[in-house]
């Protein structure tokens, strides 16, 4: 698998996932699965923020991955266990540093940046990147920096980590209660992040796992 195939696959799938989850949420057939009732959405206002941010995050991910390929990725043989280790190490590190960044910067000195995201009280999947461009860029830079610290990692490890990082950010804004037994941890993260959007003081700062919030006492 080549780097460009990985990037195109994950980024195109992200766009499709956003649309699929949004259409599911606004459909009346999902009424029994909505965490909060459907509110009126100004799609033009959302598009004015989301589309430039989608281009920015896509350009940063592609540019940084190609520019830093030698530091980020290795081309050697990799076992399945090696891929799992790459993914877990990258995402655990990201989850912990993102937690600190979100709690102490975005809800501290950089609140003026983060407040835009919190204007959305009942998010849908298409508002996952309804953020200030600075917040968007900081998130992508942090993710790539974590790969650099852990890495160089395998291309498969990069593909899985990028997919989880990108797709989970979309899913936790979906407003949908996933009831399948295997998706319960995902449903828990959706509810947890919905609670975060209800107030700037609602805790629940981590976005990949609940572990940092549970360890540092900010889970609500
Ligand atoms: Zn959010
Ligand atoms: Zn926040």
UniProtKB/TrEMBL annotation:
Q: Does the keyword Transmembrane helix apply?
A: yes
Localization, UniProt: Membrane
Q: Which domain of life is it from?
A: Bacteria
Q: Which residues span the membrane? A: 6-25, 46-68, 80-101, 140-168
- Keyword Protease in record: no
One Pfam family cited in the UniProt record for this chain: FA_hydroxylase
**Descriptive protein name:** Fatty acid hydroxylase superfamily protein
Q: GO molecular function terms here?
A: iron ion binding; oxidoreductase activity
Domain Fatty acid hydroxylase: start-end pairs: 88-218
Q: Which GO terms describe its cellular component?
A: membrane
Query: Which organism is this protein's natural source?
Result: Enhygromyxa salina
GO biological process entries: lipid biosynthetic process
Keyword annotations for this protein? Membrane, Transmembrane, Transmembrane helix
């Amino acid at each position: 698998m080549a780097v460009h195939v990985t990037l195109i696959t994950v980024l195109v799938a992200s766009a499709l996932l956003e649309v699929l989850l949004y259409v599911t949420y606004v459909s009346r057939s999902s009424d029994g699965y909505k965490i909060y009732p459907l509110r009126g959405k100004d799609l033009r206002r959302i598009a004015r923020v989301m589309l430039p941010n989608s281009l920015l995050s896509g350009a940063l991910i592609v540019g940084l991955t190609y520019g830093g390929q030698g530091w980020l990725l290795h081309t050697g043989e990799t076992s399945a266990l090696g891929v799992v280790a790459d993914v877990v190490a990258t995402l655990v590190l990201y989850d912990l540093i993102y937690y600190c960044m979100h709690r102490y910067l975005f809800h501290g000195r950089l609140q003026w940046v983060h407040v835009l995201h919190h204007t959305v009280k009942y998010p849908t999947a298409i508002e996952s990147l309804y953020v200030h461009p600075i917040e968007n860029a900081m998130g992508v830079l942090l993710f790539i920096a974590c790969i650099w610290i852990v890495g160089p990692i395998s291309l498969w490890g990069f593909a899985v980590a990028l997919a989880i990082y990108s797709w989970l950010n979309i899913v936790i804004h979906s407003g949908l209660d996933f009831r399948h037994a295997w998706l319960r941890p995902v449903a828990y993260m959706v509810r947890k992040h919905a609670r975060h959007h209800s107030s700037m003081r609602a805790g629940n700062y981590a976005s990949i796992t609940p572990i940092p919030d549970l360890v540092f006492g900010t889970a609500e």
